[in-house]
Structures are given as C-alpha cells and as structure tokens.
Amino acid sequence: MKKNYYVTTNGELKRKDNTIQLETKEGEKKKIPVKNCNSLHLMGQLDFNTRFFEFLGKQETLAHYYGWYGDYRGSFYPKEFLNSGLVVVNQSEYYNNSQKRLELAQKFVEGSSYNMLQNLRYYRNKGKDVEEQISEIENLREGTEKVDTAEDILGIEGSIRRSYYSTFNKILRDSFVFTKRVKQPPDNEVNAMISFGNSMLYSSILNEIYRTQLNPTISYLHEPRERRFSLSLDLSEIFKPVIVDKTLFKLVNKQELKPDKHFDKDLDGCLLNDKGRKKFVAEFEERLEQTIYNEKLERKVSYQRMFRLEAYKIIKHVLDDKEYKPYRAD
Q: Rounded CA gap, 160 and 229, in Å?
C-alpha cells in the first residue's frame, strides 16, 4: 500500500530526476519516493515551483496544505483520471431532489452518531459516567426522521456532537480540560488536537474520493460551496469518532501527549508543537493502517481502504438506487 508523507519542516520541495526532494533550511536533503507516495501533507513553511506541481499531476499525487494551527487550507488536486459523466449527473440529481438529498444526509448522521455512541458505550463499560449523554444522543437520533431538510439534519448533528463532546472531560485525563468546541483558532490542547485530526481526516478521505468517479464538490449533508470539497466533509463525519477521537483518547490517556511538552500557546490560540504534531501524525497513520473485517469482501481491509469503499457505496446508491448504509464500528 502506498504511504502518506508528512512534511513538518521548513524548506523547498522540488522535482529531482524522477522523485521529489525536500531541501531544508539547514541544507539537509531528503528524497520522497513518489511511486510509493499516496499523498503529501505539507505543514511547514515551504517553497515550490511549477515543475514540482507538474510532476505531482503526472503521478496523480495529491498534496494538502495546513495552516499555522494545523487547520486545512487547501489541496493540489490533479486532473481527474476516472471521469464519469453519468456519475456526476446522478450525483447532481440526488442533490437537486430534496427528498433524495435528505435521505443521504440522514444516513451520514446515522453513521456518525452510531460511531459516537460506540465510543461512549466503551467508556461506560470502563466506569465513566456518560449514561446521560448516551440517552440524549439516542433521543436526538430519532429526531432525524422527523425533519424535512438537510439543513435541519445538520442542526441535529451539531446538537449530537455537542452532547458527545461534553463527555470528553470525563474520558480524558485530568491534565486536559475541555469545555466546548472552539475553532479558528483552537483555544486549548483538546481543540488543537480535534482541529488537526479533523483536517488530516478530511484530506485522507479526499485522497480516496479522487480515486473514484465521484465529484468531491457535490455533497448532501453539508452545503456545496465554491472552493471546497464538501463530499469529503460528509464522509468525514462518519469516521471522526473512529479515527480522530480514538487517536486523541489514546494519546492523552496513555500520557503520550502532555500539555507542557507537546503544545504551544500564544495570545491567539493553541497548537501542537513540532514534537506533538509528529506524535499525533504517527498515531493517526497507525490508525489508518489498522485493519478491520469487511463482510462483503470477506477479508480484512485498512481504514484507509475503507474510505474508498464508502465512496463506492455512494456511487452504487446514486447509480443503482442500492441503499447506502454507512460504516458502523463494532
């Protein structure tokens, strides 16, 4: 399986013969084997040239850019090579038909809320007092069948997530305090990890959408807008509890990340420092490579592969009216 490469240092990226070379500000040179590269995640202050991007395009390799606080800023998205007018037309039809769009939006929230509940049930069995939030989320889930628009569904999803996030202080070690979700910029260590993890998940799912016939700008739960790949946002909701939150829980509760060693704070917000970022990336990648049994394929597949399988299910839904069933964690 091809690897994701994360560039956290400052320097220059350029084509060197038939591969990519990173030259740091200190003069150190490192090669990135492009034939083994699934995607690039660029987190440092980096210089490029057009030859570099032309080479990435020929290799069908995506590159994702992150801001100072680990927030997603954009992607280099090569020319699509699996174009299908039929898929795009049907995707658009499902968006333009309010009932069809509503049904897909409901499915995304059904999957995401189920996976949140699975996390909470795990910690309830570990003695954490999360029963109130489990009941609240179960009640909110029922409300998704009683609304008329995708916008209403997104509002319910927001209420579910607020209830879910309110348990984090009970799940995480006492050294990490979390009161509410704050973005742009994150105001504390937990928000910094959530923002960074969500950005990487969004990019990782976009990698897999690119390798299908789906148009990543046509979405159903989130409103499509200019300059964003909103279908990746839809699919990310399902996998946030499974990938991002479990990564965060493990790093904090096993004391692999500590507030005084792995984060930087300034007047504007909080971010993972270089050491913290590397630890989070390593655990995130380990999570992506973890395998789970897929009943349809009758074999184990990685979570990274599961993202693409989820996209294939969307294609079958819009082409063949085969009911989309979101991924549910065991």
A: 23
